[in-house]
Design brief:
Layout: H1 2-13, E1 27-30, E2 38-40, H2 45-48, H3 64-69, E3 77-82, E4 86-93, H4 104-107, E5 111-115, E6 122-127, E7 136-143, E8 150-155, E9 162-170, E10 175-176, E11 182-190, H5 192-195, H6 206-214, E12 216-222, H7 231-237, E13 245-249, H8 257-272, E14 280-283, H9 290-293, H10 295-317, E15 323-326, H11 348-365
Parallel strand pairs: 11-12, 11-13, 13-14, 14-15
Antiparallel strand pairs: 1-9, 2-3, 3-8, 3-10, 4-7, 4-9, 5-6, 5-8
Helix pairs in contact: 6-11, 7-8, 8-10
Length: 366
């Protein structure tokens, strides 16, 4: 009881720590599945009507863990315009929050970015906050002073599935489509870091930051602990139409140099059978605290990096001029030891450094 009283006291002392009750009288609820909303990040959504990052049935079959993690909605975005002063969201998750080193706002929350038309682009405005034991919530994201048409992006949760989501606006409000973002997507394939662990909210995963910078759809195919470069997954990914580019950032999930030497060429050659000219960028893994704890770990990381550089150089000599390499040891910047939660997964600071470093590289290549 004392602990509960202490929690309640904090909320009384600081209203920013409390969860306000929602009044939705005068609000109409709309499904983002319907026009004029535009949903990005789910390549098979139009056919399957499910918030999922891989097809429900894959041919060839993909690993069971990847199939499960595909239900996590990392990289999903809802785009629209509205003149509603109020903006609400109602969400039914597949399960409640349960992670020990990642905030529920990042694992299970939506966050909201708005372009107010001042020339500053999309700016963060709010994130969903709710009782953590729940698998559903209804939250007010905006309560503005004036009615004016504004562009909105809502980012899906990073480490949880979403069964249903509805957007709430005033009953007399107008909803319009928003089509600024390019439709030939950049596809990011990789690890838990790619998926967004451990950003404090979805908009700070590095793929979502880059999506705003580039004004381009970025499909997030990061699979926590299980993006291992399987050729079967490459074949499924190759079915995504009209790709603008493929970024491979999965080295951290390969536990040996030998495994990486086997998977990288096969993954790329499988993808090249369908997309022979699409630019591909291979990124070596970021530095981690293990680089200073274990000399063996550090040496193996350098060994894999040298393999990537030399193999890609040979492929370029053999004619693949659209294959590129970037040294991921630069991604977290000079303060790389302070850029993670646990020595491996980036903080918001780490993700911002990754996005800022990759932005000019991606602009040049893609």
């Amino acid at each position: 009881m004392a602990e509960q009283s202490g929690e309640n006291l904090i909320q009384k002392l600081d209203s920013n720590m409390s969860i306000n009750p929602i009044e939705d009288q005068g609000i109409k609820w709309l499904s983002p599945m319907e026009a004029p909303f535009r949903i990005l990040g789910f390549p098979w959504l139009s056919k399957e009507r499910t918030y999922r990052r891989m097809p429900m049935v894959c041919t060839p079959p993909i690993p069971e863990a990847v199939n499960y993690l595909a239900n996590c909605t990392a990289g999903g975005q809802i785009h629209f315009q509205t003149d509603s002063k109020e903006l609400l969201i109602a969400v039914q998750l597949q399960a409640p929050a349960n992670m020990v080193h990642m905030p529920a706002t990042g694992q299970c929350g939506f966050d909201c970015y708005v372009d107010f038309g001042h020339g500053d682009g999309f700016q963060f405005c709010n994130v969903t906050r709710y009782p953590l034991e729940q698998d559903h919530y209804k939250i007010q994201l905006l309560d503005l002073e004036s009615s004016k048409m504004r562009k909105v992006i809502l980012n899906f949760p990073l480490y949880q599935g979403v069964k249903e989501v509805f957007i709430g606006v005033q009953k007399d409000a107008t909803i319009l489509g928003s089509s600024d973002f390019q439709q030939n997507p950049l596809i990011f394939y990789g690890t838990s870091i790619t998926q967004g662990g451990c950003a404090s909210r979805p908009g700070l995963a590095y793929t979502n930051i880059l999506s705003r910078y580039l004004q381009r759809e970025c499909i997030n195919l990061g699979f926590s602990g299980n993006g291992k470069g399987e050729a079967e997954v490459a074949k499924v990914i190759s079915s995504i139409p009209n790709p603008g580019g493929l970024i491979l950032d999965y080295e951290a999930n390969c536990m040996s140099t030998e495994l990486y030497k086997q998977t990288l060429p096969k993954f790329i050659h499988t993808y090249r059978k369908v997309h022979p000219l699409v630019p591909i960028l291979v990124i070596s893994r970021i530095q981690s605290s293990m680089d200073i704890i274990s000399p063996t770990f550090h040496e193996e990381r350098l060994e894999r990096k040298e393999f990537q550089k030399s193999w890609i150089h040979e492929e370029q000599k053999n004619g693949d001029q659209n294959l590129h390499f970037y040294d991921g040891s630069y991604l977290l910047g000079e303060q790389w030891l302070e850029g993670t939660v646990d020595g491996v997964h980036p903080t918001d600071l780490g993700f911002m450094s990754m996005a800022n470093t990759l932005y000019p590289v991606i602009r040049e290549i893609f």
